[in-house]
Each structure stands twice: as structure tokens, then as C-alpha cells.
């Protein structure tokens, strides 16, 4: 009896914690979103019928996907190089990759404002060199949002890719080459498929986190880069419309889950995450 | 040896010419010259760190030598990338593609060569039948036992009619019984295909069982190349004699040469052996006798006879090893087969140890 109970006892604290801070609040948010002046789906009806909300949701998805893609393209070669270096060198370089985590997200977003602004370091440098005639719209633009978000999310992608790439046997590439595959075909047929679990895990992580981003788009983006988290905040903080905020949060959750389902279709995460390649 | 022009031979001849490879200050391969004839099973035998794996990697093209040349049938391939060498390679851990089924693993070299699907299917089938793995096409590598994975790796390395097969300790991960079985099977397949094999191992028994030729490596160079029998019966030096099999080593001085026989005084023990050419009276020599060539009999007509007493008896199943202290104080190891004269001797028992003139090996003398 006691032996059978022990595993449950071990996970009980975590389960309790998640129940209190995650499961119960989610249920409360759900309940809240169907209430308000009267019980019903009026908040959802408003989201569906008001064009601004669907546009912001589309924005959010587009930015989250774009940031995920850019992070992936930047992180893949970086993680690859890290994975083939000696243990000591790779640990030092990984430390550098996660170094930005030691600074707060807010500070880093403000730092980007200093760099990207109309009179920011970059624009002034380019102007003085005569490369450009007038300042580039680096800040309060899609560019600013992408730079800020990729900067913050890149380490997650690198770490997810690195952990999988580290486990890929180097002899497999040798085997492919001795079997007649030039390096690019060895990569395409052997390395890439084996690194997909890392691609899936990293993309998933970055996409989910990017979908809920608030500070960076608020500081570095313009009105057209408004993301859904900003709307939720303004509904709750400014309009003090908790019920509508809850409905927006619920839709965000559903949209994120739908995004995951799409990821799963393309990358087959459930197939990969469950077992070691 | 003559050129093997049997029709069944598809193997290519390999030549390494003064090949040198260093990693930083460590010289892994130190100017090795080696000829591997077509269709021969050659083993690079050596302890870890002897440079044998580096040699194989150089031949495979995964490493480039600092100097020297590698030739296939006379054609230099020293700096040709591995994917243009057309060699089959079997790795120590098999290196099967985990995301591909057996059929796709074996078919991979053929797909890379752009063969039509029908031909690929046919060749994969033939290769799988050869390694006795037909019926497992749809399995993934992780669904196979170690021995079966080994067979898939072998099939992949021969499926494209590669003329050279390189193997890096391919059997070391298997248990003893399976390993011994695979040794014979590998040898059998090699003989049937006539493929040239370069095989790396540290296991001397494996090398003796499988090889046509063995190159004993040590610290980046080759100590001796020869047939298993050459190496065992005529080791070029003490290292080879110790590495392959066991030996009783005796140091002594040549006292007399008569009728082709040398009489060597080894600290009071007089050893008679067939004199190698060039040995002179008064010369210091090192002689060795294999434990299984020593006999324990009282009435013997052998050229060498010495009295002694059993000091220790070690039972090893198919034989008994005795340590015998002979009259001059030397300790000899005698390996006596079961059922013979020395089946059940006890420590302290007096014996006569005898051996033939022909069994005396002069180490290092030519």
C-alpha cells in the first residue's frame, strides 16, 4: 500500500501548486468570461463582430510566428556549432547565450529604445556616415518588435536545439558520408530529421511565449504591432472590464492551442517528444 | 604473394605510403607504409592508442594525413572526400540512422548513388539475405538486438558493391558467444564477396581467427605484418610475441653452433634450437617458447629437457597451466591439454619439461 502511494506523494506538492496557481485560475477566468452584466456569450460575440479584435489576434499570431521563424533561423547554426565544440568551450559560450537572462526584460526593452530611436545610437551613426538621409523607423515599428522579441526569446530556441543536437551521434554523419552522401545531403537526410525534436520543442516554446508578449511590443512597437496581451491589460486596468478581459484571454488560450495543433501537424511533436531519436 | 585474379574478387588493392598524422604534439600514425592486396582480410591489431583507428579514419577519408599518400589500385585518393571513395564503413557503435527503417538504412548508399527504385529494392534484398536479416525490413534500428544491428550495418557497407570494407571494432559490443559466431560469419561473407577488408581490433584472438594478414601496431607504427601463422610462430620482436599469445622468454648467449643448431646458455639452462641465419657464437639472443609447445613427460626424445617441480596449477577448462620451477631457478609456464600426460599434477610434484628444437623462437633475429 505504502509503496504504491509513494510516487503520488512525490508529485503531490507540484500537483497542488499547479492546481492552485494554474488550474483553478483558468477555470475562474473561463467562468468570468461568460458572466458580466448577464450570463452568456456576449463578450465572445463582441470579439467576433468587432474587426479590431480579429486584427489584433492576427497581428499576435503573425508576430509570434515571425519571431519563432527568425529565432529558428538564427539559432540553428549557432546551436549546431555549440553542439560540436568541446564541453568546456560550449559551456562558456552557452553561458554567453543565456547571459541576457540576468538582465530584466524591461531594462532590455528600454535599452533597445535607446538604440533604435529617431535620435538613437544606430540612426545617428548611420546619418553621420551618410548612409541614410533621414532616420529609419526602427522604433515603434515591426522591426523594433522583432528585434526586441527575438533578442529575448533566442536563448530558449538555442537551448532547445542544443540539447537535442548534443545527442546526435557524430558517427551518423560519417556513416552517411561514407555511404556516398556529400555533406549537404548527409545534413538533409540524417542531421535535419534527427534535429527536428529540438526544432519542435524550441519553436513551441518560443511561439507560446511570444503569443503572450506584452512589455516588448508595448515599448518597441507602434499601434499596428499591438498584441493581444496589451488589449487584455487595457481592458482590465483602464476599462476595468474584467469579464471582457477574461474572454480575450480565453480566446488567446484557444488560439495558442490551435497554433500548437498546427505545429504538431507539421513537426509531429507528439511522435518525437515521447521517445528519444 | 601473387595477384589474386579469381573472378569472384571485387576487392580493390590498397596502399598506404609513408602516411603520417599528428594531433597537436601527439603523432598518431608515424610514417606507415602498408600494402593490402585485393580481396584480403587485413587486421590492424594494437592496444588502444596504437594508432589503428586513426589509420582506418585516414583510409576512410574522415581524416587527412599530414604527409604520405593513400592509393586504391594504384590511384591516389589521399585527399578525396569520403563520399567519393566508395568504401563501406562499419562503425563500432554501428551508426545506423535511427529515424530510418532497416530497408532505408541499407538502401541509403544506393539512393545516394541515384539507382532506380527497383534496383535498390533488389540489391537491399540480396544484401539482407546475405547477412541473414531478410524479414526485418520494416523494423527500426532500436527494435533490433545488438547482433541484428551489426548485420544491418554490415549490409549497408556492402550493398553498393563497395570494393573496400573498413571495420572499426565492430564486434566489441557483442557478448562472447555471438562475437565468436559473427567472426566466422564475417569472414565467410568477406570470402564470398572477395571484398578487401581492413579491420581494426585490439583482440588478438579475433585477429588470428579472421585475418589473412595482420599488422601489429604500436605507437603509430607497424611492428610486424604477416599471416596469423607468421606472427604467432615467427614474431619479429618481443612486443609482437607478447601481444599475440603467451611466451616463455629466456635471455642467453650462443655457446655453440653445430649442424644448424644453436646451443644457447640461458643462465644455466641450455636451450637447443634451430639456428636462424646470421647468428654467431658469443652473441646475446632472446629466445621464446610458447607454453603449449612445452611437454610434461618423463620419457622423452626431445632435444630440450629440464627437470623441475610444479609450483602452481591453474585450471582453465580446456587446459591446465602449470608454473614449473626448473633446475636453474627459471619459472616456465606450461600449457597442458586435458587427457594428456600432465592432466592432474599437484604443486610440489617433480616433472621433466621438454620441447622440440623447432619450437624455439629466436626473437628479433632474422
Brief overview, please?
The complex is a heterodimer of chains A (277) and B (366). With 277 residues, chain A is an all-alpha fold.
What does this 3D model show about the protein?
The complex is a heterodimer of chains A (277) and B (366). Chain A has a single domain, classed as Orthogonal Bundle (MetI-like fold), CATH 1.10.3720. Chain A is 78% helix and 0% strand. Chain B is an alpha+beta fold. Chain B folds into 2 domains: 230 residues, Rossmann fold, CATH 3.40.50; 116 residues, RNA polymerase II/Efflux pump adaptor protein, barrel-sandwich hybrid domain (OB fold (Dihydrolipoamide Acetyltransferase, E2P), Beta Barrel), CATH 2.40.50.100. In chain B, 23% of the residues lie in helices and 35% in strands. Chain B contains 8 helices and 20 strands. Chain B has a 6-stranded mixed β-sheet, sandwiched between helices. The longest helix of chain B has 18 residues. The radius of gyration of chain B is 25 Å and the shape is elongated. Chains A and B meet through α8 and α9 of A and β6 and α2 of B.
Total number of domains of chain A: 1
- Count of alpha and pi helical runs of chain A: 13
Q: What is the total tally of β strands of chain B?
A: 20
Question: What is the H/E order of chain B?
Answer: EEEHEEEHHHEHEHEEHHEEEEEEEEEE
Largest sheet of chain A: none
| Biggest interface, residues from each chain | A-B, 20 and 25 residues
For this entry, give a set of tags:
heterodimer; A: 277 residues; mainly alpha; MetI-like fold; globular; disordered C terminus; B: 366 residues; alpha+beta; Rossmann fold; OB fold (Dihydrolipoamide Acetyltransferase, E2P); 2 domains; six-stranded mixed beta sheet; five-stranded antiparallel beta sheet; elongated; disordered N terminus
Amino acid at each position: 500500500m505504502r509503496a504504491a502511494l509513494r510516487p503520488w506523494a512525490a508529485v503531490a506538492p507540484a500537483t497542488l501548486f499547479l492546481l492552485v496557481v494554474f488550474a483553478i485560475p483558468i477555470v475562474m477566468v473561463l467562468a468570468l468570461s461568460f458572466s458580466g452584466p448577464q450570463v452568456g456569450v456576449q463578450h465572445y460575440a463582441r470579439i467576433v463582430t468587432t474587426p479590431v479584435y480579429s486584427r489584433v489576434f492576427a497581428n499576435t499570431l503573425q508576430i509570434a510566428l515571425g519571431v519563432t521563424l527568425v529565432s529558428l533561423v538564427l539559432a540553428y547554426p549557432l546551436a549546431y556549432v555549440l553542439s560540436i565544440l568541446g564541453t568546456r568551450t560550449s559551456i562558456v559560450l552557452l553561458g554567453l547565450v543565456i547571459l541576457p537572462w540576468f538582465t530584466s526584460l524591461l531594462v532590455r526593452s528600454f535599452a533597445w529604445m535607446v538604440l533604435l530611436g529617431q535620435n538613437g545610437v544606430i540612426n545617428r551613426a548611420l546619418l553621420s556616415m551618410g548612409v541614410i538621409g533621414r532616420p529609419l523607423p526602427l522604433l515603434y515599428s515591426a522591426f523594433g518588435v522583432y528585434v526586441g522579441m527575438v533578442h529575448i526569446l533566442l536563448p530558449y530556441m538555442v537551448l532547445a536545439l542544443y540539447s537535442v543536437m548534443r545527442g546526435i551521434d557524430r558517427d551518423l554523419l560519417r556513416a552517411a558520408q561514407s555511404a556516398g552522401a556529400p555533406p549537404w545531403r548527409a545534413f538533409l537526410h540524417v542531421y535535419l530529421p534527427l534535429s527536428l525534436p529540438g526544432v519542435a520543442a524550441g519553436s513551441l516554446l518560443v511561439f507560446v511565449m511570444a503569443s503572450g508578449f506584452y512589455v516588448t511590443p508595448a515599448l518597441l512597437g507602434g499601434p499596428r504591432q499591438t498584441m493581444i496581451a496589451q488589449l487584455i491589460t487595457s481592458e482590465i486596468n483602464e476599462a476595468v472590464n474584467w469579464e471582457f478581459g477574461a474572454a480575450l484571454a480565453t480566446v488567446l488560450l484557444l488560439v495558442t492551442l490551435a497554433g500548437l495543433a498546427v505545429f504538431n501537424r507539421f513537426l509531429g511533436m507528439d511522435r518525437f517528444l515521447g521517445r528519444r531519436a | 604473394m601473387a595477384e589474386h585474379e579469381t573472378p569472384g574478387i571485387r576487392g580493390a588493392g590498397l596502399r598506404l605510403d609513408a602516411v603520417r598524422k599528428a594531433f597537436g604534439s601527439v603523432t598518431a600514425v608515424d610514417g606507415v607504409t602498408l600494402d593490402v592486396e585485393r580481396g584480403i582480410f587485413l587486421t590492424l591489431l594494437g592496444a588502444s592508442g596504437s594508432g589503428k583507428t586513426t589509420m582506418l579514419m585516414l583510409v576512410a577519408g574522415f581524416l587527412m594525413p599530414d604527409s604520405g599518400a593513400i592509393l586504391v589500385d594504384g590511384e591516389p585518393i589521399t585527399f578525396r572526400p569520403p563520399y567519393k571513395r566508395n568504401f563501406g564503413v562499419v562503425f563500432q557503435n554501428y551508426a545506423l540512422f535511427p529515424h530510418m527503417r532497416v530497408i532505408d538504412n541499407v538502401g541509403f548508399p544506393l539512393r545516394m548513388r541515384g539507382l532506380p527504385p527497383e534496383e535498390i529494392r533488389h540489391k537491399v534484398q540480396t544484401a539482407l539475405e546475405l547477412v541473414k536479416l531478410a524479414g526485418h525490413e520494416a523494423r527500426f534500428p532500436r527494435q533490433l538486438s545488438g547482433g541484428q544491428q551489426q548485420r544491418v550495418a554490415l549490409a549497408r557497407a556492402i550493398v553498393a558493391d563497395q570494393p573496400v570494407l573498413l571495420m572499426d571494432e565492430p564486434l566489441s559490443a557483442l557478448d562472447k558467444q555471438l562475437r565468436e559466431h559473427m567472426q566466422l560469419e564475417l569472414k565467410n561473407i568477406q570470402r564470398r564477396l572477395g571484398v578487401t577488408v581492413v579491420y581494426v581490433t585490439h583482440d588478438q584472438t579475433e585477429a588470428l581467427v579472421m585475418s589473412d594478414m595482420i599488422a601489429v601496431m604500436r605507437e603509430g607504427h607497424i611492428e610486424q605484418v604477416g599471416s596469423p601463422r607468421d606472427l604467432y610462430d615467427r614474431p619479429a620482436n618481443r612486443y609482437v610475441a607478447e601481444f599475440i599469445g603467451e611466451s616463455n622468454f629466456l635471455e642467453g648467449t650462443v655457446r655453440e653452433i653445430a649442424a644448424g643448431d644453436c646451443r644457447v646458455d640461458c643462465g644455466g639452462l641450455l636451450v637447443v634450437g634451430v639456428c636462424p641465419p646470421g647468428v654467431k657464437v658469443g652473441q646475446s639472443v632472446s629466445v621464446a617458447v610458447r607454453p603449449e609447445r612445452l611437454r610434461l613427460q618423463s620419457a622423452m626424445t626431445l632435444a630440450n629437457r629440464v627437470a623441475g617441480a610444479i609450483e602452481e596449477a591453474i585450471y582453465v577448462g580446456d587446459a591446465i597451466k602449470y608454473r614449473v620451477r626448473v633446475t636453474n631457478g627459471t619459472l616456465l609456464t606450461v600449457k597442458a591439454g586435458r587427457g594428456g600426460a600432465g592432466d592432474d599434477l599437484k604443486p610440489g610434484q617433480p616433472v621433466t619439461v621438454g620441447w622440440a628444437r623447432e619450437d624455439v623462437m629466436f626473437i628479433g633475429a632474422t
